[in-house]
Amino acid sequence: MKKLLIIAASLVVSLGCLLGTDIVVRYRLNANVDRATYDNNIYTRNCSDYAMERIIDERSIVVLGSSELHSSDDLAYPSALFNRGYSDFNMVLMGAGSLQSLPQAINVGALANNIKNGKVVLIVSPQWFAYGGVQDKAFCSRFEETNYVEFLKNPDISAETKAAVAARVNTLLEADPATRRRALKYEAMYLKHTLNPLTYVEMLSYNAFRNAKLRYTLVKEFEDLAPLDTDRYVRAEEIDFDALLLRADEIGEASCTTNGFGVNDDYYNEYVRDALEASKNSNIYASYAVSLEYDDLRLFLRVCSETGIEPLIVSTPLNGRWYDYTGFPIEDRNTYYQNVRNVCEEFGVSMVDFSEKEYELYFLKDIMHLGWKGWAYLDRAVYSFYKGEPIEDTTTYQDLFTDGNYTLSDGVTPTGDRAYTFETDVEGNEFNSFYVRLAHDQTRLDAGNTVGKRSGVYLHTQPSGHYTVRFRANGNIVDEYIDLDVYLEENAVYRMQYSIDAYSTEQIRISGVGFSKVEY
Prior knowledge:
The chain has 520 residues and is α+β, with helices and mostly antiparallel strands. 42% of the residues lie in helices and 22% in strands. It has three domains: 2-223, no CATH class; 239-291 and 309-339 and 360-396, no CATH class; 399-519, no CATH class. The protein has helices spanning 2-37, 43-46, 49-55, 78-81, 101-111, 136-142, 145-153, 159-172, 177-192, 197-223, 241-255, 265-272, 276-279, 293-307, 320-325, 330-347, 372-387; strands at residues 60-65, 90-95, 119-124, 310-315, 350-353, 396-399, 406-408, 412-416, 419-423, 431-438, 443-447, 452-460, 465-475, 480-488, 492-503, 507-519.
C-alpha cells in the first residue's frame, strides 16, 4: 500500500511539474503563433492540432503533398509569392518526403475541425504509385502519433473507415514494433474501446508528455523564425499569373543549361550526369499501373467525404523527356494518369489534371518536383479553387483530325461525330485490347481496355513529315483500325484522346477521337 502511495505521489508531482511548465510553454507558443502563420510547411507545426487550430483560417487553403512542398523557388513557391502569408490569401503547406495518401488521410481526419472553409488540396505525385505503395520504413519515419490519435477520436469518421486506415497503419508499422504497439493501444482505446483501465491511464499520461514536448519544440522553432517583411502586403487578386508564367519560363531557361531534359543544372550535375549512360532504357519494365497507393488515395477521399471536407486533387506530370530517355512506357504513364482520373470520378471530386504538361519545359525543376512554371500553375489553380472559380489553363490544342485525312478498316463503322464502332465480323475473332500507336515505329501511345475517357501526350523526335497514327482494336484473328495521316513536326508535342464508351470481346465503341498539336 505504501509503495502504491509513493508511486501515486510521484505521478502527481510529475504531472504537476508538467502542467506548470506547459502553461509557460503555451503562453510562449500563443505569443508567437501569428509569426508561424507566415511560414509555410514547418513540419512539427503540422503535427500539432493545438498550433494548427490557431493558424488555419478562412483566408487560407491547406495544401497537402510530399517532398515538392519543400522548395527553394523564390518566385512562385507560396511562401515567396504570398510573402510568407502576409497577404489576403495563404496556403498552409503540409508535406514532406513519404507523406503520401495514407498519412495525409490521417492528417485530414485529425485537422478536419480546424479547416475553417472546408477545403483542402492534395498534390498527387506519380512516384507514389510504385507497386507496393508507400514503403514501410518511409511511412514509419513520418508517422505522427498526435495526428493519428486525433484521427481516431474524430466522431465524423465511420468505424469502417477508421478500421481500414488502422489495418494499413498496423501493417506498415511492422517495421517499427515499438510504435506499432502504441498504435494498437490507440486503436483499442478509441476505436474498439477494449483497453484496460491501467493501460488507458498509461497512454493518457504518455500522450500528455508527448504533446507537451511537441509544444516545447514548436516554441523554439517559432521563436527562431526570421523577421517578416511587412513592407510588402500581397493582394492575391492583383497577381498577374500570365506574367508570372512568363517570368518562370525565363528563370527556368536560365537554370537549365546543361541538358535537354528541363532539369536544373545543380540537380543534373549532382544526380544525373554521372549516371546518364546507365539510365538509358533503365525503366522499360517499370509501371505505375497497379499499386496499393490507389486504395490509399480512396481512403483519403473517404475521410474527406465523411468529414465534410471538399478536396481538390492535383495530378502532377512526370518529366516526359527524362522518362522517354529511361524507356518508361508512354502507354503505362497514360494508364497511371487515367487511374487517378477514375478514382476522382469514382468519388465525384474535382481535380486539376496536369498530366498533359509532361513535356512542358520548366513545369518541373528536375525529374519529379514542381518547378518554376509548375508552382505558378498550381498557385493560380489553388487560388481559383479557394474562390470557387473555374480553373484556367493556358495550354491550347490545334486539332489535326480532319475530314479526308483518315481511313477506316473493314469492321469499323462511323456512328456520329468522331464516334466509331469496332465490331467483330469474322467467326472466332475476339477483341482483346484497344490501343493507339505510331505506325512507323510501333510506339504505343496508350492502351485501354476499360470504359472511360483517355488522353496523353507525345514528343515527336523524328524528322518532320507525314506519319500514320493508328487507333486499333486488336483481335485474335483480325484487327480493325482507324488510320490517321498527319504531318508531325520534329520536337513538337502532340496529344491523342478518345473515350471508350463500351468494351467487350465482340464490340468496342469509342467517341471523341482526336489528335492535336499542343502549344504550352
